[in-house]
Every structure is written in structure tokens, then in C-alpha cells.
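Moderator note: this is an archived Q&A kept for reference. The question asked for a predicted structure of one protein chain; the sequence and the answer are reproduced below.
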Amino acid sequence: MEFLNAPLPQSILKQEGNGNFAEALQIVNSLLKKDLPVMLKRRLEYEPERVRRLIEDHPYNEEEAKEKLSSIGVSENEFENLLKTGDVDYIIVKGKRKFERRFLENFAFKFPKYKKHDDEREEITNLVNERVDKLLNGDKPKRYKVGAEIAVTLTKDRKGEKLRCWLPIPKVENPLESLDFVKCEGECRISPENSPNRTVYMEGSPKSGTTFKVKFEYVLHEQINHVDPDKVKESHKQDEFLEEKPPHIIFSKYLVSLTKEIVGNEKNPYLKAKSIYDWMTRNIAYSYMNPYSIYDGSLAEFAAVNLRGDCGLKALLFIAMCRIANIPAKWQSGWFISQKVASPHDWAYFYVEPYGWLPADLSFGGARKNNEERRRFYFGNMDAFRMVANSEFMAPFYPSKKHVRSDPYDNQVGELETESQNIYYDGFSHEIKVSKFEELGNIGEGEWN
């Protein structure tokens, strides 16, 4: 997927910026008739699909957006002011405003007084906070056995003889200790243990209603690390995690300048990472994003410029700035999973000698900025509400996927394709269920590293 590093020609960007997507795609088709560099050609071939995804993710017209905002108490005059101040997410398509699928939720993130009470979300937040508080008050970290399943179902018939599916499964990597079993419905191939994206691969009929399902159990532990900054020293053991990884983990002039501004004259790697974490959890607001495959340019830089992002953008920005500050940092993702519910989630790790890899959850930390102890907890420590499936950003699948993935950078809810096309999120449904979350007892000091 290296072609995603190729920028679009200015003529296309100009038309798309004005909402003239049909005209932009005419330019794409005209350019594709020429003898082009391979990377640029592949980038242009992808553009019609990217535009389709972008428009599909902005389904509401202006009247529908007004109606949704009115339902939570926003007047028409307030709506007009919100458009002027940029506080509502939309794009222009054929001269008309089209609003993002979750613009209402993002509006409530920005203006909490409009947020609807959610009993389930509050219950889950309380569950996490209660466990974090116990750990902060000296409770020993524990092991847990977790059981879950994920199923994806094709929602309409597709052409072709074969439907291919990749579903995420747990990867044995800190904090996961073991994968106790994997059960597929039907024949499947499990990727090697060292695969950066741990998956189960299956094949079936491209008929509506075809379902792929995998069940598994794993053991993991909470991570508590007591770091003495005076014992931290420079290291060259993980230098591969200091590199840029365009288009998203980049060392742009802006990110370099921002990192220097945040880190200042600090030399200690641990304290440099902490200053980045502190700045981000206090200044980068949480916001739902479009599917990542829609964006051009660096997602990390998007978060730093717009001062907002979801868990993935926050993790990418933390990784990029740590690497700029000469601190090895890497990606990890999968699910947040509790006794009640599971959903996709991303976080990061950074490396300091002699403590090794330490976790940092910028999203969970930022959500707790009104409680300083809980906010600090997610720098260097981690709860057990995790299923790790991916240890690298932009890693290839096993076996490889023929078409551009719905998420070219990660895998948390599965991917489908036929011989002739990728099946985007509007073509299948997914469901995650939790079957087990059992405490196995305490673990000893140092045993979890």
C-alpha cells in the first residue's frame, strides 16, 4: 500500500476542495490514460474508491443535520453560527453541505452539555475507574482469562465464486501471555505467531447472509511499572522504532517544532515521553474520525494541527513525537474488552532503558484529565481490558489481500473481498461478543515485564 504515500495532483485537489468530485474523477480518468510513474498510477486508480468512501461517510444533508441538532436543543440560529465557527463536521458535494455520519456525537464531545446520558457507557467507565483506583491504592496486578468471538456477515450478494475473509484474533505479546484456543466455524488458516496482524483467514460463498465466525480464549495481565527517572539511561536497542513511516508517522517541520516546544531542554527519555503524554492528554480532544482510508496526508499531523482525534490518531501522534524526540515508540491495537462489551481500540508503547517497553493510552488518559491520578496511570501502566491483535501500523495480511483494504492500516473488525473487489464496511456487518472474563489471581513483582 505504499502508493498511498503519493500525493494527488493539484488539479484534482482543487476540484475536490470545491466539492466537484465528478469533475475530479474525470481528471483522474484522463491522467490514467498517460504513461505515469507506478506509484502515482496506483494512487489515482484508488481515488474513485476513496471518493466513494468519503461521500458514503457523509450521508446527511443540511435539513437532516438541522433536525438532528434540533433534537438535542440546538436552534437554527445556533446551527448557522456553528457552521461559521467550524464546530460541525461536513464536506461540500455538488455545492451542498453533507454532514459526517457521527457529527452529532462529535458535537457533543466538543460541547458536553448536549451529551445524552448513556447508562451503559457510564457503567463501563465506572468499571474501569474502580479497577484503576484499586491499583493506584496498592492492589497487586492480576491475571485474567478472557473469552470472546467475532462474526462478520455479508449483507448483499456479490459477483464471483469465492469470498475471502480475515478476522482478528489475539496476538501473544505483552500484556497477553497465552492464546488458549481458537475455534473457527469451517476451515481456516491462522497467521504465524509473529505476524504483525494476527488473523484467521477463511473462504466462503459471496452470497448475502454468508457469515464467518471465530471464537477464542486468552490470558493477559495488568501492567504496573514503577519507574525511577534517575535510573533511566540512553539506549540503542530499539533503533528500528525511531524511523519515519509515511504517510502517517512523519517528521514534518511542524511536528519537529511542536515536539521541541513540548520537550524543551529535557534529556531524560522517560521525562521527555511524559512531557509529550502530558501535553497530549491535556490538549488533544477526543473526536470520532472518518475511516482512515479516506484521509490524505498524515493522521498524526492532523491531530496536532486540529487538536483533536480518536484513539488511533492520538497513538500515532504520540509515536511520531516520541520518535522525533529519539524515544523508540510503537503501535498496538485490538479491542477494549470488559465483562460487558468489546469495541476497537488503539494505544502505544515507548521504550526506556532499563525498564523496556512501557504502555501509554492517550485516549484513556485524556478522558480522565479531570482526575490527575487516573490520567497519570495510563502513562506507563495499563488495565487488563485489552485484546491485542495488531503490533504494527500498516502491516500486511497473511495471506496477502488482493484489493485495497477497508482499513489499510489496521484490522479490528475484519476484512472481506472477492476476486474482483474489496467489500467495504457498507457491505457487511460485524458483531463482537464477550463470553468470559475471569480473574485468575495476582502476579508477582516484575513478572509482567
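Archived answer notes: The CA atoms of residues 220 and 343 lie 17 Å apart.
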